[in-house]
Amino acid sequence: xxxxxxxxxxxxxxxxxxxxxxxxxxxxxxxxxxxxxxxxxxxxxxxxxxxxxxxxxxxxxxxxxxxxxxxxxxxxxxxxxxxxxxxxxxxxxxxxxxxxxxxxxxxxxxxxxxxxxxxxxxxxxxxxxxxxxxxxxxxxxxxxxxxxxxxxxxxxxxxxxxxxxxxxxxxxxxxxxxxxxxxxxxxxxxxxxxxxxxxxxxxxxxxxxxx
Length: 211
Ligand SMILES: *[C@@H]1O[C@H](CO)[C@@H](O)[C@H](O)[C@H]1NC(C)=O
Ligand SMILES: *[C@@H]1O[C@H](CO)[C@@H](O)[C@H](O)[C@H]1NC(C)=O
Known about the structure:
- This protein has helices spanning about 5-25, 40-50, 55-60, 65-70, 70-100, 105-135, 145-165, 180-210.
- The protein is mainly alpha-helical and about 210 residues long.
- It has a single domain, classed as Butyryl-CoA Dehydrogenase, subunit A, domain 3 (Up-down Bundle), CATH 1.20.140.
- The two termini are about 40 Å apart.
- One 2-acetamido-2-deoxy-beta-D-glucopyranose binds near residues 37, 39 and 65.
- InterPro entries: Invertase/methylesterase_inhib, Pectinesterase_inhib_dom, PME_Inhibitor.
């Protein structure tokens, strides 16, 4: 516990330290503003440049700037989280659609929707597995070797999820044009962008070689 007697001694000390160290910083002309807030949003924008859909990447991830800071692992993890929630929402949408739609004699449309739902379920599992793996990375004592192994799992699962999302709409190739087909294909294309971006950020993180 600091006593009242100690305080007057400490204060001048801090004051001198502050003056000594702040002087060179303020006199040296720096191209950056003196107290430039590094909130991670610039970092996210530049990292998103490595993805196929940089605008979607930035708009979906910039809200996590303060949590991400400049950490590639955190960025990859939030991107996987966003991709997971998108895939889950699409699976729920497709499930709703197959319950609500009356396909009548259009068995192909019903089957295509069923297959799509099943593929999305696989994608959700793979993305969820990736997220769990990412949470284990960087745990105490993890070596570079185990990092690369864990990252290769995440890369494999995210690639598989992307393939499953692609496969989702395959069954619709034989289905005539209609509102359901259009809507499902548009949504699948959208979900794929988030997964693709997350995979690109996962690859960037793996390339750093360290947790
Ligand atoms: C981060 O900084 C940029 C520019 O410095 C600013 O436009 C943006 O609103 C900030 N974002 C957050 C979440 O604080
Ligand atoms: C699915 O249906 C439920 C109940 O009708 C609804 O609350 C939910 O918003 C729907 N979800 C999607 C993604 O369309």
